[in-house]
Write a structure and sequence with these properties.
Chain lengths: ~240, ~240, ~240, ~240, ~240, ~240
């Protein structure tokens, strides 16, 4: 059986880098599809941005399922609309933050979350609390570069990521690192090498590739999210949205 | 100083009951204002409904602040958009679920959350986890009546609420009860009496009145939410929303 | 309805500063009353001091209720006798530490507790554990000045408080600060300004004003502590105390 | 070296049963001494009772140390004054509830606490939270007989204890039982036998004998409580107490 | 790249059922290999059995890596020797209990663990505690049939599994079920159907298929466990073991 | 009654120091016996070493009980085989790590664990999690000297232990210290003195003496571990072990 996995990037622009730049997913039994939003923010750097990305993310998830996707991966580490999308569709929905945190805990005992902006610290703490992973959460680290500036400062960002990684491993005793912004797509290898050169062998998780492979593994195991927990919403009027379910 | 407290009901319809029906807030130093949404769901009974209520809730909070409100109370026990609203405005924003849970823990050692639908159990568990109140959370109870049917079944709902309350107190050892749907506005007294008749003297929290009085208390103490934690969003393009900040 | 709120200062002396010095409570619907102890310590800086303050604190709470108080606020951040007083009276009893910690968690995601002496660290940790607020507790900070020396070293104490506040915000990522000694009454504004000048906008909680306003809010909401959880003590002989209940 | 262990029974009366009735402590290297209070309650069944037992308990601990005791055991499962006594003296102070809960967790994975009155449930939950043992706490069970009626209803109390024990083992999966009232002194053996007859082999902890033997073990290991954590109180005036330190 | 995944069944006998009976793994990019132990127990039903399975499990993991395996899955829900194997080899080692619990938490909010024997309750609680998943652990359920009797009582076992599943979903509010014995291989589908017929749509995890697919996903993502956390053991004498590393 | 306490040192060599060097246990009512392993590692510094020490540790526990021991103390701070030994015998089995951590929490509010190697940090975190003591765990500290080099570097090790202890007390606010390697036998007094000279009075726990005295205390109280929780293993074939039960 072929897995059709649809990635929804919950912003209106192409993002820092695309899947075409770094695509490790070519396999005959896997088809990757992709959408951007029609309405929403240009980047997600706050709970405000995230809130405004959710309605169209839900619509894109509904569209993706209708078009035959078996799984939907939300391409943002705030996991915007994860639970609402799970209610709206039956196809498996994966949030890369939840997926990466679970895998990091499994592989490295404790993990650090390394992201763009210091201001996301409470938002990530809320995700960790909700996902029940506080015991495995070693630290939060931030390079403090706005998302839209990453592409133009890639060397600086990479060096800063490596510093964050070393601090996480040495001071917070992290055994795995989660790259906390999908804009860091492709940075994991350089970080792994740099950490390894300092004697640290810890997995560095690039969330979107991991989420795609994990979604595929769950599909091959016949699993989706629970529709009892994430029950379909009741059908009733909705003003101001042209939501097609 | 007069407190101007603006209640945003995050649905497009009048709701089960209005503040005009049960208004305990008349005080010379307190002015209550109110908005409904222009776009959003007719009731909130899922994470899907909640997600679609958030964008216009944020807009209404921004409008309320611009019109002079000192505090904004979101009139739904899912606290939709609480953090995003706190980012968007400087006026104090109160989520009735967070406020009620903290007060219930303070007054009754452990609390139960009694709401409309069984399907909200994981959503409330997520709020409790995020608010850091798991140790004080005794149980979740549901009357299992859709929000929009409450008004037509008030007697049955009240009896069912009392049963839930007795179960919470006897089996889960709750020392306070949070009415987990703002549609239960006004039911608290009947529940208190019924529990008291059975020998249980536990506070029954009617979330909107409590939230209004608590907001007023915080204003009189000169307090608002932290703008370092809930920092204002960066100014950047936003497609498909005509958000006035 | 007028709220009559009685503050019991659980020491035998006037304390560092009085309510007359800094009284933000003047409102027509609020009457503030006050008692000191007849027997007990001159200041509370240990579990020993606290233990010896409790019996007469209970008596003063009983007296206050008999004289018509609707709520009693215990004026010490160890919340001495909080549960015993709640058993002894039906009027709402508020401990300023419990009240401030809950409000700080609600407004700032995580809070630090800044107090006089390093030796109080385990005592505060015990309160946090009991109140179920560990997830929201960012750090404990101490200026290390004995309570009775605060008044004569106010400038130094204020500077030290600001240093503690900056450390709490920068290193422990606190989003709210609780002034952990009622002797700091009135220092909150200076701290807020100093933190704000450094770019940090976090609420600084002055516990007694907050507790009074919160008590008033709970009274206006018709709430008191649970008399099922804090049940009245059985009537039985008591040797060596002339307790009037 | 001989261990001199002083038991302070924090009430003014002889109690339900005395150490003379059931004394398993006769050993040449162990001397047991005993005090009652001069002022305090006749039994401890509330936080109110407990609060009034503490001042004279501290005095009796100070007296016991001055008279040569190496360790002091407080003979009440609310551990009244435990921390204050540890501040007041350097001799090891043991609270039987803390000691029993730790030993029960060590021997049986999870423990239930079986005591006299349902109303003590929140008080015991507070002790468990403070002692950091929530993960090992299986359940609270109560026979619901006032302390002073135990002696006259011993058969009924024993049967009720056995029922509580079976419920704890079967429903809460407790692997050890803590007898949560020192008035149950001597009931452990009968409970063990009854549970064993039903196929359950779980330790039943009689707190005072255990506390005495544990105190002796700690003395033989050269251990006392930390005087950095439980630092001696500063010397300063104290009104209304004739405390001899 | 082809994933070579080696399953080590940590007992000396063929087990209840083999991979040949139920093999959902046929894929061109995946090769499954398998070993039994030469020394160890015939089934694992206690910590004693588990302890004696570990030394040869480690040897078989070392052998598997030397023979070219990219990942090793330990075929027992006690995850025997998981950490020791991770130290001994660099190839990814997966414990099916850890993997299933993480996936169940991700898909179903809270999970129940359904296994053979009531006596395994504390052992599973210890795994949950170690893996940091207590918040997501809904309940433990047991069919109470010895492992070696499963094959001869398959109908009864299946009915009992369904009863356990319904209890987990209805009373413990589990949103996912982990089949806690690898001997239940193949029972998941029947359980899913039975639960679905009662209106419950919750994933039922068959741990070995899931672990194999998850191992494959991690290999495709370039991930292994952290060799800093699970560092290779120092080389030093070892008496009585002919361990080939 | 005389307590016969059998210490099993779970390695094949004499270890860093023996009980003959430092024996504080001479008492007429206490007999100490001792075994080494016949097969296993020369020291325990990893989960791998620990796993290979367990089978013969179980055998030695069985032998010790058959020879009349009332209690068995496993002489390694990884508590290897603790639960399996408790299943295999009815005599009380004590793990020194579990015993020391509980006593340290009881005496000092929070404890630090000071051991030989940094690489043991996750293993100790796992024990703390399993024993349910996370709230009382202040920090992990390591001198970073291999176990077998301790004897030749005793001065350096002692200095390093003191540094670790000061860091634990000053930075992690530990109120008790657990010496996390039984090879540190006898170092506790020097550490206590050094810490005391710096003004810190915190108990320093030497785990084997404490475990012996605690075992004796439990025996004198008539207690053993729960045989319902640690139920005897079923009798069934076992290949490759000549286990005599």
């Amino acid at each position: 059986m072929k897995s059709i996995i649809h990635i929804v990037t919950p912003i209106v622009t192409r993002g820092v880098r695309t899947l075409d730049d770094v695509d490790p997913f070519r396999r005959p039994d896997l088809e990757i599809r992709h959408s951007l939003l029609d309405s929403g923010p240009v980047s997600i750097e706050s709970e405000f941005d995230e809130a405004l990305s959710v309605p169209d993310t839900i619509q894109k998830a509904i569209d993706a399922e209708r078009d035959g996707a078996n799984a939907i991966v939300i391409d943002c580490m705030g996991d915007p609309g994860l639970n609402a999308c799970r209610e709206a569709v039956s196809a498996l929905v994966i949030g890369p933050s939840q997926a990466s945190m679970h895998m990091a805990a499994l592989l490295g005992h404790k993990f650090s979350f390394i992201t763009v902006l210091e201001r996301l610290r409470p938002m990530i703490a809320n995700l960790v609390a909700q996902y029940g992973l506080a015991q495995s959460y070693a630290s939060f680290e931030a390079v403090d570069v706005p998302v839209l500036d990453i592409e133009n400062n890639l060397d600086e960002v990479q060096n800063s990521l490596i510093e964050c990684g070393l601090r996480a491993v040495r001071e917070a005793h992290a055994g795995a690192l989660v790259l906390g912004c999908t804009g860091f797509l492709g940075c994991a290898d350089a970080m792994s090498s740099a950490l390894s050169a300092q004697g640290y062998r810890v997995p560095v998780i690039d969330p979107i590739p991991l989420s795609v492979h994990l979604a595929d593994a769950l599909l091959k195991s016949g699993m989706s999210h629970s529709k009892t927990i994430y029950a379909s919403p009741a059908s009733k009027p909705l003003v101001g949205y042209d939501m097609q379910m």
